[in-house]
Amino acid sequence: MTYAPPRGRRPGYGGGPPRGGPPRRRRSAADDPRFRLRLAWVLLAALLLVSGAKLVVVQTVQAGSLTADAEKQRASRIVIPAERGSITDRDGNVLAFSTESKALVTNPRLINRTRGAEAVDYKNAMADAVAGVTGGDPEELRRALARDRGYIVLATAVDPAPARELRERFPEIAEESREARQYPGGNLASNIIGAATWSADAQKLVGRIGLESADDDLLAGRDGFQIADTAEGSRTVIPGSVRSEQPAVSGSDVQLTIDSDLQFQVQRMLAGYAAESGARSGSAVVLDRETGEVLALADNTSFDPGNLLEADPATLGNKGVTTPFEPGSVNKVVAMAAALEAGVVQPEDVLEVPGQIQVADRTIRDAWAHGVERYTLTGVLAKSSNVGTLMTAQKVGEDAFSDMLTRMGVGQRTGVGLPGESAGSVPPRATWSGSTFGNLPIGQGLSMTVLQMAGMYQAIANDGLRVPPRVVAATEGPDGVRVPTEAPEPVRVMSPENAQTLRTMLTAVTQNERGQAGTGPAAAVAGYEVAGKTGTAQQVDPETGAYSRSQYWITFAGMLPAQDPRFVVGIMLDAPRGGTSAAPLFHDIASYLAQRDRIPVQSEPPRVQTLQLP
Amino acid sequence: MSTPVIDRPGTPGTRPRPQARRAAAPPRIPAQRGPGENRRAQEQRRTRAVARENTGRAKFVLVVMVLLAVGLIATLWLSTAAAADSYRLQEARQQTAALTERSEALRKEVTVLQSPGSLAERAAAQGMVPVSDPARLVVGPDGQVEVVGEPRAAAPVAPPAPPAPDPAAPGDPAAPADPAAPEAAQPQAVPGGGTSDPEAEGGDAAAAAGAEAGADIDRQEGADREVPADARAAGGQD
């Protein structure tokens, strides 16, 4: 502190009146320099004390909260978005992937203020330009712009380049970064893939239905963040101010077992056939015989996942895995397989089959009236005789039959990897009444999905080894390592010899010899031996609660080629017009498969099997 | 660079430092030289030592100056280069962004063009039709060619018929091939009575019995029933 020396008290010095003037006024205490000096000292000391105290308070007591406040003011948490993984088919063709896109927003109120009289013309020009880029309705945009609001969205998914051009032309347009989901195949496999759309809340793509929703965690990845100081009002990071950073982890890519081309053809054929036959709905599935992989899984209706909002809600599901039905005669292979495994029958055994059979309190008839006929076991299956099947089932017994149902996977989820999978239903063994055993062998009173149905036939095609179907082939994480889906545990359903025998019996279904015709000759493919089974099951009429006599589930399950199968096909049509069979659709799919995969032609015609003896 | 400052005997101003003297005082044998000679030599040695010292300091100063100059120039050059590079970096970033955008746009276009749907559409536009049931030629080991299947001209496919066709005309378009005949030919038994009995299924040959008009009305009513959607899109769209 500087120290001013006290002034001397020499007379005449300072501002005193000149000598010889009027007598001096008596000095007050305030005039005393020493007093003033002391006062200043005290004031300064007090000031210093207060400042010091404040300093201590700020630096120690409030330090934490003040620092936090300051940081809050400058530091921002910047989210680094993670890219959503893609979905490909088995050959790597992309079915769904993400691109960067921009949402364009603007502030009409600000335009009104800044443009004044020209505002209307300006906004109209803007509406036309935006509509020109997005293909939207310019009138709607004009109306939106005319409203007195501070924030309107002009477009939601614009490519970055046109968005930039628009922004340069109209500085009032601002853009928001978004991720857009592209589905190049349109409705191809849409029932499996589902759809993901932008969520304004989460600020990212969110899976809404299908695999996009079920595997959302896998596909979405993890957003990263950066905590750094930013220039006020912008997201420009001040260099060197990054305090914490976590990089984004991209979502995993999912590879399906689906074959795009086959899926497309099956979708098209099924949609066409279902429409032609007036079916309420329909599903079809194609499995690889050896691996149980789902090569195609289609509903008769599909939707465009790129335009989810306008899709008909009834088309969004995946009925092939979610909606069970009563399979009808397709289920007769269970009784046959159980009988062959028990060793109680041979394909050539001749059964004396009456026109009806009594099981507990019910009478079961064949679909056509007849007296006692002599059918071979093959004939019972090929002609789909209910009575003959029940006779065979009774030879096997309820327990062996129930056991075979379980081994065939009926009543259990396949674990295919798609959301909302139904297990179907089989009455528990303990609850069976006398008549239950008159229903189940002929495929009534239990239900299964088309995928489970195809799974049963996959077991027969694969020499008795059932491999539960899978739809996800592999996932590829952000590290680029491909992780194949764990192979499901196969189930031994029957011996290879019995599977072979059953396949031969099933070829008789497509046989078309005079007097020895099966029920599904329309399924036959020239040059190939085809094994399969037709099915027709009565639906329950919701009005009467009884089985309807006009509405049926029409099914077909089969394999191609019969003796060394490569593909297993399951088809279900819900309530088509009377007289419809699913066999012709199987024929179309099988014929396409034979062409596409160049399956060797079998030149000698298949052996004619005896179905009925005179 | 060395400045030759030698031999200025008896310079009075040069006062050698003690340190220098110490350094420049080698052991000698006094008896060998006279006193005057001895003094001159001492002076000389002292002068030389000073000269050497001066030379060393100048060198050091020079080195420092050069270093400073080089450093300054290097700093300037680096900062200029950094500024220039930051422009180039900016440019490269913009280029990367533009190329990324372009590759994304091209990817979008390519994936759409190679999707089966778009290929089928373009094939149809060129007048191609899908083959439904090809006949096949099988060449036997003896060279004989056998035709398997029935050769037929491919017919253009009609677009899928609209749903809900006339229910009063059952069966006819649904059975495209003659093999369907045996099914229809089989006599139909109407599954018994109006009980709740899950009577034998209609048989695979089936449902032709259901082709009666009344039955079809039932079916139509049934068709109106809403099939529950298994999953719905959540809203959440802005």
Assess the beta-strand content of chain B as a share of residues: under 5%
Largest interface, counted with CB-CB under 8 A? A-B, 118 and 90 residues
What is the approximate shape of chain A? elongated
- C-alpha termini separation of chain B: 82 Å
Question: pLDDT average of chain A, as an integer?
Answer: 88
- Tally the beta strands of chain B: 2
**Widest β-sheet, arrangement of strands of chain B:** 1-2
Radius of gyration of chain A: 41 Å
What quaternary form is this?
heterodimer
**Rg estimate of chain B, integer Å:** 55 Å
The average pLDDT of chain B is 65
Q: Give the % helix of chain B.
A: 40-55%
Shape of chain B: rod-shaped
Strand content of chain A: 15-25%
Helix segment tally of chain B = 5
Poorly predicted runs of chain B are 1-14, 16-24, 160-238
Structural class of chain A: alpha+beta
Work out the helicity level of chain A: 25-40%
N-to-C series of helices and strands of chain B: HHHEEHH
Report the major sheet of chain B: 2 strands, antiparallel
* Helix vs. strand class of chain B: mainly alpha
Write a structural description.
The complex is a heterodimer of chains A (614) and B (238). With 614 residues, chain A is α+β, with helices and mostly antiparallel strands. In chain A, helix 3 (108-115) crosses helix 4 (119-134), helix 10 (260-276) packs antiparallel against helix 19 and helix 12 runs parallel beside helix 14. Chain A starts with 32 loop residues before the first helix and ends with a strand. In chain A, strand 14 and strand 15 form a beta hairpin. In chain A, 32% of the residues lie in helices and 23% in strands. In chain A, the strands form eight sheets. In chain A, strands 2, 3, 4, 5, 10, 18 and 19 form a seven-stranded mixed β-sheet that branches. Chain A has a five-stranded antiparallel β-sheet with strand order 12-11-25-24-23, with helices on both faces. A three-stranded antiparallel β-sheet of chain A has the order 1-8-9. Chain A is elongated. Chain B is mainly α. Helix content of chain B is 47%, strand content 3%. In chain B, strands 1-2 form a two-stranded antiparallel sheet. In chain B, a hairpin with a 5-residue loop joins strand 1 (136-139) and strand 2. Chain B starts with 17 loop residues before the first helix and ends in a 14-residue tail after the last helix. The chains are: A alpha+beta (614), B mainly alpha (238).
